[in-house]
Design a protein that fits this description.
By secondary structure, the protein is α+β, with helices and mostly antiparallel strands. A hairpin with a 2-residue loop joins strand 11 and strand 12.
Length: about 210
């Protein structure tokens, strides 16, 4: 099941403003990945999923590489580079199945972020090499364990109106998805892409 969609941006606040203007709903701070120099804002979606708007943190430069191939100097605006699938208690099994099928999603490792209230949110997920397999059409996996899922605490009011993947070799994508039990609409296209439309009370906005 879809856990969250990653919307990477060189300017989180500008993207939050753009989404708020289009939908009428403003995302709020989720937390900070201080060591990486990144932070996010979140919007809850339906069915226990959420949108993560992530980019460079102006308050912490960090010391490691930015997540999701983020390069503030690339000139690329807000885009969807990746997505996350709920591995939950099967995360280790699914990661191994993907590896055996030729899609190494990386080891299952602990990660977390600092919350605005001073608390901490921790989880486990797969972190593989960048760029991801099949142009991002294979998601990374996550297990929240006993942690509070962000979809229950993020701002409500936006729904995922449409969501699909594009790729020139749909058979390859479908074969990989069968290994992990993934379901997503797929459309043939010349280049890989993940495309989502978010609907709010005042309108919608689409990213890819």
């Amino acid at each position: 099941m879809l856990d969250h969609i990653v919307l990477a941006t060189p300017d989180v606040q500008a993207t939050v403003d753009e989404i708020a203007e289009a939908t009428g709903v403003r995302a709020e701070l989720g937390g900070r990945f201080t060591q990486m120099g990144a932070y996010n804002h979140l919007l809850a979606l339906q069915d226990g999923a959420y949108l993560e708007i992530i980019g460079p943190d102006p308050e912490h430069s960090g010391g490691g590489s930015m997540p999701f191939g983020l390069d503030p100097e690339s000139g690329r605006g807000a885009h969807i580079p990746h997505w996350c699938w709920k591995g939950n208690e099967r995360i280790d099994e699914l990661a191994e199945a993907a590896r055996s099928a030729g899609y190494d999603l990386g080891d299952v490792v602990p990660l977390g972020r600092d919350l605005p209230d001073g608390g901490r949110l921790d989880w486990r997920l797969t972190i593989g090499e960048w760029p991801p397999h099949l142009g991002g059409l294979i998601p990374f996996l996550i297990d929240w364990g006993d942690a509070t899922h962000p979809s229950t605490t993020a701002v409500q009011g936006v729904t995922l109106a449409s969501w699909h993947g594009e790729h020139p070799d749909l058979d390859a994508v479908r074969a990989a998805h069968r290994v992990l039990g993934i379901e997503i609409e797929l459309r043939e296209a010349s280049e890989p892409a993940l495309v989502a439309t978010f609907q709010g009370p005042e309108g919608s906005i689409t990213y890819r």
